[in-house]
Amino acid sequence: MGRIDEALRRSTAKKDTQVKAVEVPPDDMFVSPWNFAGPPEPVAQGPVRDGALDEPSSTGLHVIWPSLLARFKNEWRDRLAIGIDVEPGLAEQFRRLAATLLQNQRGENIRSVMITSAVPADGKTLTALNLSLILSESYKRRVLLIDGDLRRPTISAATNLAKAEGLSEIIAAADERRVPLVQLTETLTLLPGGRPNPDPLSGISSLRMQQLLREAVERFDWVILDTPPVGVAADAGLLCPMVDGTLLVVRAGKTPYKAIEHALEAIGRDRLLGVVLNGVQEHDRAEAYESGYYYSSQASDNVTS
Question: Is the residue at 197 inside a domain?
């Protein structure tokens, strides 16, 4: 991970290449499209002991899992970090990642996280899915998962919602529309991507998109946003200033070093929460622990979105 650390240092030095924060307009300048009978208040969190992390809960999960897993296509089910037959190591790494984010939330009030990668097939979509599942089902936080990869809405396809109206239609509509949320579980809600859009930049950079994200963090404990890879499209660079932080997914031994450098510069060191190292081999786990987040699963090798 020395090369990633070096890239992080370089991205810090190049301040002029960082994405500048988007100025969000006052509420009276934009009528929000957020109009749905959703949860009125975020889930209340109990008292926190100093220095203590939340412990994941398994209460009722044996009841939720069958109906939740049934929503996913067969090729995705055994790659998820929940279920009776889930690989223990896979679930544990996402619990560690979720616990770290929860700790950061208390210290820095982080509530919205963008998940992206440097290049395709690094595992960003699977990371966004599993992180959302662990935060909602294990830690009982109210999570909104947004399929923001509008060019290739993979989460929508994985949950059999490829033809459903979603974010693409909402941010491109001339009129004020109801936000089409899908309740996956009591604590996990999905905003589908909608129909694929080869050029979604005008909608992504719109005031409506900014306001939608602002109101989402007021209604949910966590907002997880899946986006296209940084090296493929400009979408992630436009969305990055609209969220509280970004996780960059890197596939061990596969992602080109130059692509990682480019992604770090585009995201900006001050907005990077950490690097998720995907596909770590067993003998490399000790080094990965020292460098940040990681998860490794033989089952995940066949799903690379």
Answer: yes
CA distances from 224 to 87, 173, 245 (A): 23, 23, 10
pLDDT tens digits, 99-122? 999 988 888 889 999 999 999 999
- C-alpha 108/C-alpha 244 separation (Å) is 9
Question: Does 28 map to a domain?
Answer: no
pLDDT for the residue 295 = 38
Whole-angstrom Cα distance, residue 209 to residue 24?
10
What is the number of domains present in the chain? Answer: 1
Element at 76 (helix H, strand E) = helix 74-77
The shares of helix, strand and coil residues in the chain, as percent rounded to the nearest 5, are 45, 15, 45
CA dihedral over 260, 266, 272, 278, signed as positive or negative:
negative
Given a contact cutoff of 8 angstroms between Cβ atoms, the answer to whether 156 and 166 are in contact is yes
d(CA 263, CA 94): 23
CATH of the domain at 85: 3.40.50.300
In a domain, residue 32? The reply is no
Q: What is the pTM of this model?
A: 0.76
